[in-house]
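Could someone model beta-D-fructofuranose with this protein?
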Amino acid sequence: MKYTVQRANEFVSEYAKSVIDTYRPTYHAVPPCGWINDPNGFCYYNGEYHLFCQFNPYSAEWDSMHWGHWTSKDLIYWTWRGVSLAPDQPYDHFGCFSGHAIVDNGTLYAFYTGVRKDEDGSEYQQQCLARSDDGFTFVKSENNPIVPNTLQPEGSKAADFRDPKVFRHGDGFRMMVASKGPTGGDYLFYDSTDLEHWTFAKKHIEGLGAMLECPDYFTLDGHTVTVASVMEMPPDGLRYPNSQPVVSMLDVETKGPDCISIDYGLDFYAPQSVLTPDGRRVMIGWLRSWGNDFPPRHLGHNWNNMMTIPRELRIENDTLVQYPLRELETLRANERAFEGASFAAPHSRACELRLSVDVHEAKQLCLHIAKSEGEAFRIEYDVERQVLRTDRSISGYPMGKNGAKEEKPYREAILPLKNGKLELRVFLDTSCVEVFSADGTVAMSALFCPKGSADHLSVSSDNGSANFSLTIWDIIAKE
Ligand code: FRU
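Reply:
Sure, complex below.
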């Protein structure tokens, strides 16, 4: 057998020593080395949060999907706990793909997609279960695959059937699985009373995009919320800024799929959420998109990708909104405040900014951060169009494949002014920026990779009439 949990952990303990940390974030979940994508199995178990991820221990490229694992007491400080699942079975030898976890009767049930590839090249994706009684050591079910390809409805492709999300439903459980159906992306429901034996129930979503991935589903403030990562969404102006947007849909059961983007930035995918013991719904996403590149990979730094900060979700005015988790405020240090029509200031490479602008007659507002000679990450607002833009075109290394220029190194989102004011919160952490509108309706996340010191900012408007108030905190992540 090629891959095992033990082999992966032994490799990681050596490989991690070769990691170059120039671009590593300080308060985002990041692997010790290797590649990560999607958050997996996000849950609260035995007094702490468990966050798993798609993980290749052996290089900074996507390959041989294992599940990596962090834990946290507070959703802020994440401790790496090693590899939990390896592709070590005939039914998952090509990868343990994404999935969720659920806790029942003191046992943690992790659901994932086991991928098998036959010699003739045909691929089979089937849903599998691994159980754990401590959150760290997992035993794969003797019934795997618990949702085999034979349980797919007609027209659902065996090679595109993945990413199980399991939740309580009536007296039993329901599993939502992404599938490529006859008319595009479907989410399918399966039901079970014991988490081991499942039967097909019905389709929840049908024919959205070319394929759906990584579902999340929960109730919040009296609504059901379906979260979908959509492949090849038909373009619709600024509504879906990416060809693979992540969207929320409220009350699909009664209203059908009315999609609103969850994050309008360059890098955000496959989020999962957890319910905290005090009743908050908190989401973490993969701070990356398929189709671009993150230079630490081709610069030979031996690590790749990170998760977003945790975001608290709420429903306000029939819309899913998100706010940076309030516990992040405990990391603030060295508060400084600035006010005026234009100014410049130094900042540290891990910091939080709170910006409030009285727009007056200005037509264009500019907040440029992570600046050094010839470089900046640009956050700009077009007053006439009421559009917020994040732009990494001059922020350092190009982010296209293998360091090539990107076709579109910026994204835009509609954000109406409130009483003539623009209010933003910005989180910067070495090589990532997450921008939130104060009303929770717009989030924009992006990676970037500066060549210079990236430690200055400036604010300005096109005719100097706007009044900016800015507070800066260093973020010091020390346990
Ligand atoms: C989404 C995804 C999932 C799949 C995983 C494989 O990012 O394609 O659908 O389970 O990545 O790593």
